[in-house]
Amino acid sequence: MKIYDQIIDKINRKGAAYLVLLDPDKLSGNKVVEFLDHCTRADVDGFLIGGSLMMSGNFEALIEKVKLHSNLPAIIFPGSIDQVSSLADAILFLSVVSGRNADHLIGRHVIASPMIKRSGIEPISTGYILIESGVTTTAVYMSGSMPLPRNKPEIAAATALASEYLGMKFVYLEAGSGAEESVPDEMIKAVSDVCSVPVIVGGGIRSALVARDKVENGAKVIVTGNYFEDEGNWDMIKEFSNAVHHKNPITV
Ligand code: 1GP
Q1: For the range 226-230, what are the long-range contacts, defined as Cβ-Cβ under 8 Å and sequence gap of 24 or more?
Q2: Which end of the chain has fewer CB atoms surrounding its CB within 10 Å, N or C?
């Protein structure tokens, strides 16, 4: 089964899917296996792997470890076109539809497409919508585009609908890694009400309750990154996972 279909299947069975973002610059060495183990036991649905910068050069080594030590999908979440690897299962083929920077709407995709074809991994076209979140996030800065105003759910809804009509398979509402404020619930609801493709929500989610609110407002995939970069929080992964998987009976 394709990775996209696997995620849809998890959404249908559990109510929503939970993906954990692994940033190769922040997670390396012996800790990786232990963290993957925590995630597997917590019933996480897959990993996003990537980062806006790649200072460490650990990108492929991290994918290799994920494939070796877990059976969960390894999906590239590319911060740049050099983040393509045949070791992964799939790649989110992100177009920054909130911005008007042609390079991030289509330019880089033209360069990356032959690389993705050669790699044999599954591209999953995704309308990536950056939402204003209190600070200038790395994603906003690196994409050279303006984020969508957080008090304009109707613009988010129209942008998401346009992405769907362009054939994108996911819409991703992104507050940005380490965002002060996560994507507003009202905006998630406005987007989910008009879109038939699943809505991914990430950025600034630091509690299971907040994750649950997003799901209750229509998010079908929740992504967290930063919060679990602190090892002291690893025991909470299960709680996040339970909050997202609202169709599952609660297990501790
Ligand atoms: C993925 O960028 C997010 O969409 C991750 O955000 O690191 O703030 O959880 P956090």
Answers
A1: 226/177, 226/178, 228/20, 228/35, 229/23, 229/26, 229/27
A2: C
Strands (E), the chain: 17-22, 46-49, 74-76, 90-96, 122-130, 170-174, 199-202, 221-224
How far is Cα 115 from Cα 93, in angstroms, rounded to an integer?
12
Mean pLDDT of 121-139: 95
Give the dihedral of Cα atoms 113, 116, 121, 125; nearest 10 deg: -30
Ligand 1 contacts CB of residue 225 (under 6 A): yes
Q: Which residues is 20 bridged to in the sheet?
A: 47, 224
pLDDT single digits (tens) 156-201: 999 999 999 999 999 999 999 999 999 999 999 999 999 999 999 9
Give the residue, by CA position, lying nearest to ligand 1 atom 4. 202
Strands 90-96 and 46-49, bridge-based pairing: unpaired
Please measure the distance between the N-terminal and C-terminal CA atoms of the chain and give it in whole angstroms: 29
Report pLDDT digits (tens) over 34-73.
999 999 999 999 999 998 777 777 899 999 999 999 999 9
Residue 251 has a pLDDT of 52
Would the pTM count as exceeding 0.90? yes
Determine whether the shortest distance from the Cβ of 224 to ligand 1 is under 6 A.
yes
Look at ligand 1, atom 3, and give the residue with the nearest C-alpha: 203
